[in-house]
């Protein structure tokens, strides 16, 4: 089959046949390479379609604990409660409920206990003369850690004067007991002060003016009272 059949020299026909065979081999090799590249799948990277699917619906591992977001960060922690809804494992609280360490102990409105009130009184000066009016300043202080309320009206604040070597000689409740109420809210550390003037005379319940006499010279002590709470007596002199 390799012999020439035409009028040309035999070498020319042989060269043509060899050239045709060579071209056929080159084409065959190219086709094999292309098929191998398209079907090989040697890359470890996912296709574009796979990547898109993963980003849209991340798969949370089965071992993810409640309250832990998936690695993509797109999941809402399951331990976070929406407004008005308790988180898993917690009982819902009714509106306005207070916990043991919060609202119940810090909202103003509770009655000030005696233990949270500091009560003091002092004369305006240490020495007076017989018949001179004496001015007392009473101070009520919230020494507690939370706001509270207290009635600071005239009937509740009472000053008494006693002779150091005798008994009581005067009380504002005898002559001016006061009326009504004066409810005040005291913040922690807040003070309320009240000035009271004593005429320097004796008094008794009902306060009959004719029975009131100037007290003699001596050492006296004033004590202030707020309801059942009593402050410490403070001395002063009348000459």
Automatic annotation (TrEMBL):
Compositional bias segments (type: Low complexity): 54-98
Alphabetic keyword roster: Membrane, Transmembrane, Transmembrane helix
Compositional bias ranges of the Polar residues kind: 103-119
Top-rank lineage group of the source organism: Bacteria
Region (Disordered): 42-124
Ranges that cross the membrane: 18-37
Protein name: Repeat protein (TIGR01451 family)
């Amino acid at each position: 089959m390799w012999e020439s059949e035409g009028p040309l020299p035999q070498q020319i026909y042989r060269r043509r046949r060899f050239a045709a065979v060579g071209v056929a081999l080159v084409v065959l090799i190219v086709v094999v390479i292309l098929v191998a590249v398209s079907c090989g799948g040697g890359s470890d990277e996912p296709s574009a379609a796979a990547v898109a699917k993963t980003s849209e619906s991340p798969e949370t591992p089965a071992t993810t604990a409640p309250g832990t977001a998936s690695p993509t960060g797109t999941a809402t922690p399951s331990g976070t409660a929406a407004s008005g809804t308790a988180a898993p494992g917690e009982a819902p609280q009714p509106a306005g409920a207070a916990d043991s360490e919060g609202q119940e102990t810090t909202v103003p409105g509770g009655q000030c206990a005696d233990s949270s009130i500091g009560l003091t009184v002092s004369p305006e000066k240490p020495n007076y003369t017989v018949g001179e009016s004496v001015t007392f300043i009473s101070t009520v202080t919230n020494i507690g850690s939370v706001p509270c309320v207290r009635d600071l009206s005239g009937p509740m604040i009472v000053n008494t004067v006693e002779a150091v070597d005798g008994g009581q000689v005067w009380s504002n409740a005898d002559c001016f007991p006061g009326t009504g109420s004066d409810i005040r809210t005291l913040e922690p550390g807040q003070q309320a002060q009240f000035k009271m003037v004593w005429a320097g005379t004796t008094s008794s319940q009902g306060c009959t003016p004719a029975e009131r006499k100037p007290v003699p010279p001596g050492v006296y002590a004033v004590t202030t009272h707020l309801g059942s709470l009593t402050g410490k007596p403070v001395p002063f002199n009348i000459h």
